[in-house]
Amino acid sequence: MIPKKIGRKQKEVRKVGQPRIDPGAPLERRSVGLPESWWKEIDLLAKNYESKASEIVRLAVGLHLRRLGKIKTKIELHKNRKPN
């Protein structure tokens, strides 16, 4: 019998573009560490595109947060993929 290795965690290898935030984990504003001005913009995007702020943050993690136009495009693509 092969002995188990105790105490070592296998690191999961992320694919390119995969977000660092666990999609299943609850999202808290203070845990993400974004400036308040960014949260205002994220809230505005969430209101305009009728989606959750946590979805926008998770989409934006793989993108450059300063390029909000790219994030808006990504949200539109994501909303179009959802079944009605």
Structure summarized in a few sentences:
With 84 residues, this protein is mostly helical. The chain contains 4 helices and no strands.
Q: What is the alpha-carbon Rg in Å?
A: 17 Å
Helix content: 40-55%
What is the number of helices? 4
Order of helices and strands: HHHH
What is the residue-mean pLDDT, rounded to a whole number? 68
Overall SS class: mainly alpha
Give the strand content: under 5%
What global shape is seen? elongated
User: Could you give a short account of the major beta sheet?
Assistant: none
End-to-end CA span: 52 Å
- Looking at the chains present, what oligomeric state does this protein adopt? single chain
Show unreliable segments: none
Number of strands: 0
What does it look like?
By secondary structure, this protein is mostly helical. It has a domain at 34-81. Helices cover 49% and strands 0% of the residues. It is built from four helices and no strands. The protein has helices at 29-32, 36-49, 53-61, 68-81. The radius of gyration is 17 Å and the shape is elongated. The model has no long low-confidence stretch (mean pLDDT 68). Residues 1-28 are annotated as: Disordered.
